[in-house]
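Chain entry —
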Amino acid sequence: MKSASRLWISALLLAAAPMALPQTPASPPPGIRILAISKPASGGTREKILPILPEEVRATVRLYLQGKIQEWYSRADGTGVIFLMDCKDAVEANALLEDLPLGKAKLLEFDLIPVSPLSPLRFLLGESPGKLPSNQ
C-alpha cells in the first residue's frame, strides 16, 4: 500500500510540475520582412550584367548564409530576382543590395516592400489585431 501511495504522489507531482514552472510570455510575432523585387537599372543591359553575374551570385549566397536573404526566386519573365529579406527595415535592405556587385555597378535596382504577418488574422484567435497602418 505504501508503495502504491508513493507512486500516486509521484504521478501527481509530475503532472503538476509544468504548472509550477514560470510561464514564459508568448513570443512576439515575426518581424518585418522586406520583399525586394529587382529590375534592370537604366543602362543595365544583359550584355553589361552577364559578366558580373558570377560575382553577384557569390555575394548573394553570402547574404543568404548570413540570414539576410530568407528566400529567393527568379522572376518568371526572366528579368531578375525576388528576395524575401530579414532586415530591420528597407534602409538596411537597400544598403545590402546596393553593396552587391550589380548594385555597385548601378546595373540593377530593387523595389523594396516591407511586409509583415497578416495582423487581422488575430481576430480568429480572439485577439486585437493592433493598430492598422494608416494606408489600409
